[in-house]
């Protein structure tokens, strides 16, 4: 018997990340090949024709489990009864726009979308914010959706996590799949802290395998932090397929679990690790039974404290920058 369809909202549907993401979801990469999915696509009025073209291409793939597509410019239509939301659409920085203006422009968008989620989404909806500044956009969404569980509104650090895994695996000469217990802390920005202190490969500590602390601190951490800019420099456009892949990884693991493995998610802090409550901060988590739990009790050495405080300071500044909008 066919299962009832799940509803997945995706915003920014005409954009470049969605040009990869929507096809992955429709192919069953998120919920599995036996689970019908209805896509509920949101974009701006001026992008509706382009979304229509993407829908034509989705049809042309003849995905057996794509049970329907809704296209709208109204968040309350897009978010009605949804099980999951990928908030990808955001205002890009335009010429002459200061960072503070960008923060505020996005704060307005995520305030409206948080309010709409609060009103019409399923009460256990899982939300992933991808649009930048992702952590602070997730913070605003959460503030504006007070009736939803706070922990269900998350931000994407998974691309940083995957970028770190890949670079570390190449350096150690191992498969990225063999690296366990990697963590990325903080903001999705160049200040994020890729922490390999607990990472292992088949039981051997990864720092011992690499045996080059200077490379880790002076090359790996900044390289992962600036990888988005390097892709923009090379491609003339920001990461899209890898961002979509990370979004699928994040939501897939949250839904299906990680079998005890660690992944990094931007989550509203519960106050642990000295991160003030509510700040959406990248943390190592373990997922099981449709929920995630922050890995507790890890030691924080001096280097880590400095790195974690630096990225926290940026998030506190961003929070202060949007106070006028979310209070
Ligand atoms: N967290 C992460 O790791 C990453 C985040 N990003 C961010 O993801 C976002 C999207 O990236 P792209 O797809 O490359 O951008 P894009 O510019 O190709 O597409 C953005 C889409 O969002 C739409 N949009 C704008 N405002 C909207 C609103 N209020 N409601 C619904 N749709 C709206 C636009 O019309 C456009 O179709 C950007 O903010 C980018 O910086 C990108 C890569 C990684
Ligand atoms: O800066 C951007 O728009 C893209 C981004 O977040 C990344 O690639 O990590």
UniProtKB/TrEMBL annotation:
<feature type="binding site">
    <location>
        <begin position="130"/>
        <end position="132"/>
    </location>
    <ligand>
        <name>NAD(+)</name>
    </ligand>
</feature>
<feature type="binding site">
    <location>
        <position position="106"/>
    </location>
    <ligand>
        <name>NAD(+)</name>
    </ligand>
</feature>
<keyword id="KW-0816">Tricarboxylic acid cycle</keyword>
<dbReference type="Pfam" id="PF02866">
    <property type="entry name" value="Ldh_1_C"/>
</dbReference>
<dbReference type="InterPro" id="IPR022383">
    <property type="entry name" value="Lactate/malate_DH_C"/>
</dbReference>
<feature type="domain" description="Lactate/malate dehydrogenase N-terminal">
    <location>
        <begin position="6"/>
        <end position="150"/>
    </location>
</feature>
<feature type="binding site">
    <location>
        <begin position="12"/>
        <end position="18"/>
    </location>
    <ligand>
        <name>NAD(+)</name>
    </ligand>
</feature>
<comment type="similarity">
    <text>Belongs to the LDH/MDH superfamily. MDH type 2 family.</text>
</comment>
<dbReference type="GO" id="GO:0006108">
    <property type="term" value="P:malate metabolic process"/>
</dbReference>
<keyword id="KW-0560">Oxidoreductase</keyword>
<feature type="binding site">
    <location>
        <position position="132"/>
    </location>
    <ligand>
        <name>substrate</name>
    </ligand>
</feature>
<feature type="active site" description="Proton acceptor">
    <location>
        <position position="188"/>
    </location>
</feature>
<dbReference type="GO" id="GO:0006099">
    <property type="term" value="P:tricarboxylic acid cycle"/>
</dbReference>
<dbReference type="InterPro" id="IPR015955">
    <property type="entry name" value="Lactate_DH/Glyco_Ohase_4_C"/>
</dbReference>
<protein>
    <recommendedName>
        <fullName>Malate dehydrogenase</fullName>
        <ecNumber>1.1.1.37</ecNumber>
    </recommendedName>
</protein>
<comment type="function">
    <text>Catalyzes the reversible oxidation of malate to oxaloacetate.</text>
</comment>
<dbReference type="Pfam" id="PF00056">
    <property type="entry name" value="Ldh_1_N"/>
</dbReference>
<feature type="domain" description="Lactate/malate dehydrogenase C-terminal">
    <location>
        <begin position="158"/>
        <end position="323"/>
    </location>
</feature>
<dbReference type="InterPro" id="IPR036291">
    <property type="entry name" value="NAD(P)-bd_dom_sf"/>
</dbReference>
<feature type="binding site">
    <location>
        <position position="43"/>
    </location>
    <ligand>
        <name>NAD(+)</name>
    </ligand>
</feature>
<keyword id="KW-0520">NAD</keyword>
<feature type="binding site">
    <location>
        <position position="163"/>
    </location>
    <ligand>
        <name>substrate</name>
    </ligand>
</feature>
<feature type="binding site">
    <location>
        <position position="99"/>
    </location>
    <ligand>
        <name>substrate</name>
    </ligand>
</feature>
<dbReference type="InterPro" id="IPR010945">
    <property type="entry name" value="Malate_DH_type2"/>
</dbReference>
<feature type="binding site">
    <location>
        <position position="93"/>
    </location>
    <ligand>
        <name>substrate</name>
    </ligand>
</feature>
<dbReference type="InterPro" id="IPR001557">
    <property type="entry name" value="L-lactate/malate_DH"/>
</dbReference>
<dbReference type="InterPro" id="IPR001236">
    <property type="entry name" value="Lactate/malate_DH_N"/>
</dbReference>
<feature type="binding site">
    <location>
        <position position="113"/>
    </location>
    <ligand>
        <name>NAD(+)</name>
    </ligand>
</feature>
<dbReference type="GO" id="GO:0030060">
    <property type="term" value="F:L-malate dehydrogenase (NAD+) activity"/>
</dbReference>
